[in-house]
Amino acid sequence: MSDIDQLRNKINDVTLQMVKLLRERTDIARQIGDLKKSSGLGIFDETREDQLRKEVVALCHEIGLEESLGKKFLNFLLNESIKVQTTSKQTHLTIFLKAKNLEQQGKKIIHMEVGEPDLAPPKIVKKALGEAVDRGHTRYGHAAGMPQLRTALAEYVSEKFGTQVTHENILVSPGARFSIYLAVSTLLDPGDEIIVIEPAWPAYRDCAMNAGIKVRVIATTLENKWEPSIEQIQKTINSNTKMIVLNYPNNPTGKILAPQIQDKIIDVAQKNDLYVLSDEIYSAYAFSDWKSVLSNNYKKSIITQSFSKSHAMTGFRIGYTVAEPKIIEKISKLQALCLTNVAEPIQYAALAALKAKVSDNVKSIRSKLNTLTDQAKQMDLEFVAPDGAMYLFARINKPDFDGVEFANKLLDYGVAVAPGDGFGNYKGFVRISACQDEKKLIVGMKILDEVLGGSR
Predict the structure, then answer these.
(1) Parts of the chain belonging to CATH 1.20.59.10
(2) Are the C-beta atoms of 319 and 117 separated by less than 8 Å?
(3) 6-9 CB contacts, 8 Å cutoff, 24+ apart
(4) pTM across the whole model
(5) Top-level class of domain 92-119+359-453
(6) Boundaries of CATH 3.40.640.10 in the chain?
(7) Hey, is 257 helix, strand or coil?
């Protein structure tokens, strides 16, 4: 047997041993997940992961293995553990689907679990959609979007957000969610790390895990008014960190960062050569000082926007990304692979929507959010009044309160809310959406209060 054959046999043996150990580790992770669930513990444990990460780094130095390779391998193992332990995790979408099933059975539900404005799209959108079909605009198109829509979006963004961009900075996508998926999947590699400030929309974590990226969490608290710590962000960054996600106005808290805090985060990102993925889908509903990350003029920033919230066009599935041309070119290639292009009639509808005034939408959501907070003040709920967006993220002041159990129980009484667990380790919280008629919101909050009080 030749030397190369002997080495190949050795590497095969080591690989098979690693697979057996992976199976053993996965079984243990599943057992830990079961214990966490029965004990009411959160799935994610940054402190535990940090300690294990230190031990792996120390071992790498001891045995002469490249540190970044050891951490990438650890990130793979940690992600696999999380996948095993989150198979039955419930989020706002879980509750939404259960609520929809109940409606199909004839039950009336007050939807306070999803951020879907109960407003009609601009009238000119309906007209533009029909005209696009009548004129035969139903063909394949540019992967990055129709040139006229990209140009119009560039002009809109430049004027609205105080920056200067061209059509080369724009990608039209089927919703901001897909923009986020594209950015994470194309700009990062398996084993890389991404920083997410929680509580946060669960899609950031889900997109990262789908791409083999490890999520590192900066957990904020109600007591600190959901303010992230710059020091904690700096400590979390290492050689594998490649991106930080911002979402302000925030889903679920409605928090808006003070401009100077945002500037500090961008400075940290720039010093460490990190991408900044800024989800600004709720910018139309900013009720205090807010500025786009675009105004920081950072070359590695990726801004995602959508017509879903601002123009009440959730079902149209159209959003867009603003970034440097090289980034747009890279993410466009994956979009072309996945779906060719966004449907032409929908793009024409979005082009018309840019001419619509949405100030009434903003007034409506703000009024509903005020109604929601007024109702919450009369109840035993703890929250920070939101600076924007369309949600109230409230802690329930009851011993051993479980948001998942409560959200499922509340469905029996015709009200849907989102469990806080879906946004991070926030078991004692619920997210309540202000996207219903104000009378329904009041009724929904009264039912919520009665169920909490145990009178039903």
Answers:
(1) 3-85
(2) no
(3) none
(4) 0.91
(5) alpha beta
(6) 138-353
(7) coil
Distance CA 125, CA 129 (A): 6
Write the DSSP assignment of 9-58 as a string of letters. HHHHHHHHHHHHHHHHHHHHHHHHHHHHHHHT--S--HHHHHHHHHHHHH
H/E run at residue 96: helix 92-104
* Distance separating alpha carbons of residues 21 and 291, to the nearest angstrom: 49
Structural contact between residues 198 and 429, judged by C-beta atoms closer than 8 angstroms? no
List, edge to edge, every strand of the sheet that includes 170-173. 170-173, 319-322, 301-306, 275-279, 241-246, 193-198, 214-219
CA within 13 Å, CB half, 319: 26
Cβ(44)–Cβ(424) under 8 Å? Answer: yes
Q: Which pLDDT tens digit goes with each residue over 313-365?
A: 999 999 999 999 999 999 999 999 999 999 999 999 999 999 999 999 999 99
Q: Give the CATH H-level superfamily of domain 3-85.
A: Chorismate mutase (1.20.59.10)
CATH of domain 138-353: 3.40.640.10
Residue limits of CATH 3.90.1150.10 in the chain:
92-119+359-453
